[in-house]
Amino acid sequence: MTALDRLPGFRDFYPEPLPTPDAWSADLRQHVFDVWRQTSRRYGFREYDGPPLEPLELYTQKSGAEIVSQLFNFTDKGDREVSLRPEMTPTVARMVAAAERAYKKPIKWFSMPQLFRYEKQQKGRLREHFQLNCDIFGEVSTGADAEIVALLIDVLRGFGLTSEDFVIRLSSRTAWQQFFEQAGGNPTQAYDFYQVVDKLDREPSEVSGPKLQALGIQPETVQKFLLEGTPNSELASVLENLRARGLGDFVRVDYGIIRGLAYYTGIVFEAFDRKGEFRAIAGGGRYDGLVRQVSGGKLDLPALGFGMGDVVLAELLKARGKVPAFTSGVDAVVLIEDEALRSESLAVVQRLRDAGHAVDYSLVPQKADKQFKRAQELGARSTVRLESTPEGLRARIKQLSTRQERLVPADQVSL
Amino acid sequence: MTALDRLPGFRDFYPEPLPTPDAWSADLRQHVFDVWRQTSRRYGFREYDGPPLEPLELYTQKSGAEIVSQLFNFTDKGDREVSLRPEMTPTVARMVAAAERAYKKPIKWFSMPQLFRYEKQQKGRLREHFQLNCDIFGEVSTGADAEIVALLIDVLRGFGLTSEDFVIRLSSRTAWQQFFEQAGGNPTQAYDFYQVVDKLDREPSEVSGPKLQALGIQPETVQKFLLEGTPNSELASVLENLRARGLGDFVRVDYGIIRGLAYYTGIVFEAFDRKGEFRAIAGGGRYDGLVRQVSGGKLDLPALGFGMGDVVLAELLKARGKVPAFTSGVDAVVLIEDEALRSESLAVVQRLRDAGHAVDYSLVPQKADKQFKRAQELGARSTVRLESTPEGLRARIKQLSTRQERLVPADQVSL
Which residue of A has its CA nearest to B72? Predict the structure, then answer.
């Protein structure tokens, strides 16, 4: 028998206070989930979820076979080729294609799935993360693009981040497509071109230059387009919409954003920390052709959305001091100093819990000072202790912050 | 290109109103999660989570190789034998073993993982479900058993179920073990014996009888024990504790409960609907040896807990009329009847969302009556509409239930 560890690249989430400084906090995860969910709901988005295991083909039909090297895929006991989901967009496109007739358009949905990629093993490189996915289906207007970008901004603001902390870089696949075709590129090679542009930041020009030339594009024209851009009515409309909401400070046009995935068709965007210390916090855009593809051509529904992972976000919140202090959540501790009163004390515990309070107590006989110390450690607001008095059983309720006490009949205890 | 469906035995969760009567509701799932989480917190339990993918050995070392036929297991790209988690207890035992020194005892933790089993494909038989797991580590006293059973009861009460709807059947592996040894059984065969007892309900006596005799046990003595039981101080103590909380009506001793899993060591229990229409709603018990096993013998920590799946629970809630009516959650719809006021209307949308309200509006120009109809469909409490007046821009706020209206300056809108 040996002690077993978890798999590399996977996380355990522990309650605070954390056992080690590098442990992942279940409380922080829940805080992230709460802000994600609450903000999405404020925007009128509805929650959905799909299976974490999907047919492998759901991913290969869109991204080609080369994606398989990055997947947790296998053959199941029914001889099906399956994969843990590496992203949520194909799943939601499948779900919408199957059920869209039942829903009024636009469909505004969100989900918070755990996603899996078989990444090369590196320090700090994870193989799973949670990702907020917000999508709108059935609306071609840029009003939808602006709504989805506004939601992204407000999710980040929900964590206490400001326009000093992050910026949304907006771009347009449409504009890049026009550039590529006007520069003499072959439309069937547009995606290869986007891939090169996507890596311009990371690849030296000796690598990217020849790649561009092979596609019939002069590298200088790309550099010029990156610097000067082009008038684009889609981007102008989104910017105007966001300014009307008072969110203009959170966005800027940046044609350096193009997004690596194959299926984007219109406006694309990424969220970055202003200091440039982290990878992209979130990214998304329009993918008007994906529902048609996933539905086998049966349904053509415009779509757009973004994804925001929990890992970079948590790093950013820690670096900017935006992680709240987490407590045990216990409201009161019932002190059982007289074991003869344990049964009656249990009735008090039950009464307070029935009233909605989080209540703890010692499961076994324990010295009074230890019980009180535990109440303090838990950050309880109150202690409750039963006392036999000539008038009957009384509960002494003490507020720990003010040390104020009150004495009430045991069957009328309340916080 | 063909339309892809999800894998058999896996669920999509859709927002209400549902697209088909047999679709799974994301809103109901969230309701289940909310009650699970809130009730666990009221009992002072803290949330944790672990990876959905674990080393295969975590399950085989405990349950033997035969469990593999029921697992979603595979060899990953790093040649590791891995499995989707079929249950949470080995994971939490591993996590506690790794970090218990950082936590005060008893450790009271809960989690709501999705679990996976490669079940034989049958109608309505799923291959994944969500399961509330509540566990206590580090306490041998029956006070802990009573606390965990009380939590189970209050979780079910949290859904509006009463003692008319469900009962907890309490039993004791210790009592069964004593019976087995006194009846002449070989202690090394105790688990084989429990397996036969576990199936007594489902197997005809022609099958179970010979099995018992092969273990050296007369079937009549088992029947007698089932009917008459035996004095057991553990069970008596748990019952007394629950009665002190006023929860006595929710439990009864039933030696027919023994639990199939190998690792239980003391009190065991299952929750059933009173009408006997469904499979067990929840089950659990003591597993004092598992942490020692998972830690490779390094740590010996008593433990107990229960699991409650979402599938049987959802069926029961539907059958007993305990599923609440779900709404869109939208508080207000901003009506944009004059497109010249779209920018100003977006500012109002933003102001209301910033104040924490869930707000929707039409992303594109739309007829006034359609917008109002949509507000009614969404169940919004209010509509807000901007009007240009001689005194400046005003917001007309209408409460849909009372039809009361008020007019305020656009920059002072509130609900």
Answer: A76
- Closest partner residue to A358 among B19, B44, B295, by Cβ? B44
Contact A70, A120 (CB under 8 A): no
Query: CA B301 → CA A1, A398, B240, distances in Å?
Result: 17, 34, 25
Residues sharing a CB contact under 8 Å with residue A206, sequence separation 6 or more, in sequence order: none
Domains, chain B = 13-319 (3.30.930.10), 332-412 (3.40.50.800)
- Please list every residue in chain A whose beta carbon sits closer than 8 Å to the beta carbon of residue B143: 363-364
Measure B214 CA to nearest chain A CA, in Å.
31
Of A7, A103, A364, the CB nearest to B143: A364
User: Nearest-CA distance from B362 to chain A in Å?
Assistant: 9
Nearest partner of A31 among A313, A376, A331, judged by Cα: A313
* Residues on chain B touching A342 (C-beta within 8 angstroms): 244
**pLDDT tens for each residue of A296-347:** 888 999 999 999 999 999 999 999 999 999 999 999 999 999 999 999 999 9
> pLDDT tens across B232-261, in order?
999 999 999 999 999 999 999 999 999 877
d(Cα A331, Cα A308) in Å, to the nearest integer? 33
Contacts of B116 in chain A (CB under 8 A): 53
Cα distance between residue B170 and residue B164, in whole Å: 17
In degrees and rounded to multiples of 5, residue A131 shows phi and psi of -140, 125
**Residues B25, B27, B31, B37: what is their CA dihedral angle, to the nearest 10 degrees?**
100
